Amino acid sequence: MTSRTTRGRILAGIALAGVLALSACSGGGATPSAPDPAGGDSPAAPAKLTVQPAGGARDVAPADPVQVSVADGALESVTLTNPDGKQVAGQVSPDKRSWTSSEPLGFGKTYTWSGTAVGTDGARVPVGGAFTTVTPKRKEHGKLNVGDGQTYGIAMPISVTFDKPVKDKAAVEKALTVESTPKTEGSWAWLEGDTSVHWRPKEYWKPNTQVKVTAKLYGLKVGEGVYGDEDVSASFTIGRSQIVKGNTQTHRMQVIRDGQQVADYPVSYGLDSDPGRVTKSGTHVVMSKHSTYFMNNARYDYENFKVNWAVRISNNGEFTHAAPWSVGDQGKRNVSHGCLNMSDANAKAYYDSVLTGDPVEIEGSTQKLGPKDGDYHDWTYSWDEWLAKSALNR
Prior knowledge:
The protein is mainly β. It is about 10% helix and about 40% strand. The chain has a five-stranded mixed β-sheet, with no helix packed on it. Strands 1-2-5-4 form a four-stranded antiparallel β-sheet, with no helix packed on it. Strands 9-11-14-13 form a four-stranded antiparallel β-sheet.
């Protein structure tokens, strides 16, 4: 049995606990700070704005970042207006800390910022000012060598070619991307007097690779007063593997398709005794094919000489083609002016099997394929030599 004294102590304790509980729930103590507009718990502070391009900026490249960002707060509204009063499309980040333009700016135009940001202190800060984009002295166009929906051979390089040498090669490279499935290791290299940049895989492409190349050149400064005039891109496929292996000393040309030899043709290569007629050793790349083609060579006194089933493998005049006049020499001796002479039937069979971008590996001659032979001598470089030709590696 509980004594009266003990029972009194228990009741007093309960009463005191009730008073403490009431005090804890009654809203006493420090008043909580105003909520952070950006959703954080930062101390109250005014919004700090960063505007790119800033008000008063001139000669802004349209490819430069166009963005408003805020610290210690959140964006309430942002508008960028062109000279015609039209709003430039843009996107606010989910945390409302930045706004980024989603459409390109024009050349030689004035744009005006407006809007507000709210700091963690609850005060509004205006977004304002105007800037002007550059008027180029000259616009430069980059031309891709690959096309949408096309299928190419396993040695196909990608090139972006300009009308004149590019001054800011590093800026151009940073604007170029190559995406592939499966992922393929490769690099850009500057060739042809800095007018063309090529992307080559470290090894031949894997068959059936899906590739997308994008050149974000519009508004990009590529030289003093020179800017890119438009973006270019293409998506294409790498086809089956087909490799030609030719030897000027055995006078043969084998075709290896998907790892299996499917043909072994007798061939007459360029005349060995004349350096101007020797077929060059090295990895050539099929550039184009023509059911009929007219050959011209002023040095050797022929003009508009018609040949059938011509496959171009370099820019120095080397082709495979039908040469019925040299069938007796094919497989025995080299008599051509640098081309790979074949019979009508063999030239047609090879022509029918060809994809632009197929490799043609030739060995045995006294002359080597190189830069003077033009596109595509990409595979004549070792991988380290190729990497050294990137502006980003210099």
